[in-house]
Amino acid sequence: MMAKKKEEAACCDIPGGCRVEAVVGVDERGQMVLPKEIRERSGIKPGDKLAVITWAQGGGCPCILLIKAEELAGMVKNMLGPTLGEMVAK
Fold this sequence. Notes:
By secondary structure, the protein is of the alpha+beta class. It has one domain: Pemi-like Protein 1, Chain: D (Ribbon). It has two helices and two strands, in the order αββα. It has helices at 36-42, 69-89, and strands at residues 50-57, 60-68. Strands 1-2 form a two-stranded antiparallel ribbon. β1 and β2 (60-68) form a beta hairpin. The longest helix is centred in the last third of the chain and has 21 residues, at 69-89.
């Protein structure tokens, strides 16, 4: 039986929290590997596309977010769909 990971405290005020899941290295070509456990839990499979979203602050980029491109497309459709539908109906 696999030992349960200790539940760590969230590092932000976002509902559901965010936490440091892993520390990964970047090779000389700028590539990194997402740990298998994170890929499995996130449903990331070979060939999937990930959108890279950055949060800029003070001229730097302290935060990088990865989201499956299909999920992002769904979010945009849900947010803009009703508005665009109203515009077309006018």
